[in-house]
Amino acid sequence: MGRVYDSNLLEATLPRLELLMFAIFFTSHVFHFILKRFSIPLLVSQILAGMILGKAGLGLQADYRSIMFGIDSDQLFGTIGGFGFQLFAFLNGVKMDLSLIRKTGRMALCSGVLSMVMPVLFGAVTTSIVNSYLGLLELDKLSLSLVMLVHSMTPFPVTCSFVSDLELTHSELGRLGLSAALSSELLTQFLACNAFLVGIFYQYHYQGALKTVAIATAFIILTVFVVRPAMLWVIKQTPEGRPVRDLYISFVVLGALVSGLIFQFIGLNMFLGSLAFGLAVPAGPPLASALVDKFECMVSGVLIPLFMAMCACDNDESKF
């Protein structure tokens, strides 16, 4: 027989999480049912659902906010969302084929580089003009520059999501767009790493920067000369037409999570570590396709919608 507790069921973390998940999925699909007629991707509906269900929407009501956003809710939701996005970055690395840039030619490479460089140039000019007219403080100037740089970037996972929603993945236009986005992503991550290193240098002097460079270099060498050959060995050990052993799949996913932990430890973006580890996975069957088949549904269907909606939930526009 079940027991009846005097305490409120929604005081527990799990029921609140389940209730929020149901609300996010229901609201986002209601929006998508309407917006898909205008070819608007599901991502937009997920963000809108997060804004409505978040702290700047229904969260303005005290009772709703106390139920859905308790003391430990931010940490829990942030952990789940971060875990989901880390796996999403890993899977996107698995699905990336670096030879795609070479196959599509210079047009994709130039488009990808220009899509990053041109917004930065125009943003730098605009930032300089704003600074000269408004006389901003140094901290405000730095914040404005960071905002400009962030808005100049187009993450590869976002492009993948839009291309997939528009059903252009296997078209020539889709391949060209993905190649350009991949080129832009590689340049973006290179610049981001350099920016992190500069920040570490100013904060911890050259010892901290050297430590970060040394560990990152060791990680890349280990990934290229140890991890990737090990994955190629796994592929050779798998008979043609047979699935990869679950033990190997588990080790690969564990490696992706550990890679993110290493990058977090040295002060870089943890998602970059998972993405880099995913790039080491040989494209195509049997290993890459097995990873995508096993985790794509959970990551893209559950964790990433939660991550997108929860990011919008945390935005409290009433404070601006």
UniProtKB/TrEMBL annotation:
Subcellular location: Membrane
InterPro entries referenced in this protein's UniProt entry, alphabetically: Cation/H_exchanger_TM, CPA2_transporter, Na+/solute_symporter_sf
Signal sequence bounds: none
GO molecular function: antiporter activity
Pfam families, per the entry: Na_H_Exchanger (PF00999)
Family: Belongs to the monovalent cation:proton antiporter 2 (CPA2) transporter (TC 2.A.37) family. CHX (TC 2.A.37.4) subfamily.
Protein name (database record): Cation/H+ exchanger transmembrane domain-containing protein
Lineage: Eukaryota, Viridiplantae, Streptophyta, Embryophyta, Tracheophyta
